[in-house]
Amino acid sequence: MRGPACRLAACPPRGRRGPCRDRCRLGHRHGAAVGGLPVAAFFAAQPIAPAAFRATLIAYFTLLDLWTIPLMWSQGFVTRDTLLATALGLPLMVAGVHLGSRRFLSAPPDSFRRFAILLLATLAVLGLMRSLA
């Protein structure tokens, strides 16, 4: 980021090194990405088949991660703690994908969409509660 946008982000003036400047630069490179809840809500509102909805989200987030990880690595944001947290969270992710696949295959399309919207609403409320705490 440069100019007014960087000043609004409370970054130091141009030319000074520091973690804030690196965050501004990383944000600039990754600024086109959109968080998970808005993307999932957008696709949940579209008249597409549940299988296409699920496949599109899986592809979007996989490609987003493949794009983001090297950028974060190059800026020094991937550390040993990051790798440890990833290793600890990997079994939970695998279990979630497995349970989600089972639920998806056994649910009728209307039930799947209702469940997805309820899950999005729950995550939004939890996010708001966390930001207010």
Q: What does this protein structure show overall?
A:
By secondary structure, this protein is an all-alpha fold. It has 6 helices and no strands. The chain has helices at 4-8, 19-29, 36-44, 50-74, 80-106, 109-132. The chain is globular, with a radius of gyration of 18 Å.
Key features of this structure:
globular, mainly alpha, 133 residues
Helix content: over 70%
SSE order: HHHHHH
Which structural class do the helices and strands define?
A: mainly alpha
Strand content: under 5%
Major β-sheet, in short? none
Question: How many helical stretches?
Answer: 6
- Radius of gyration over alpha carbons? 18 Å
Short description:
This protein has about 130 residues and is mainly α. The protein is built from 6 helices and no strands. Helix 3 runs antiparallel to helix 6.
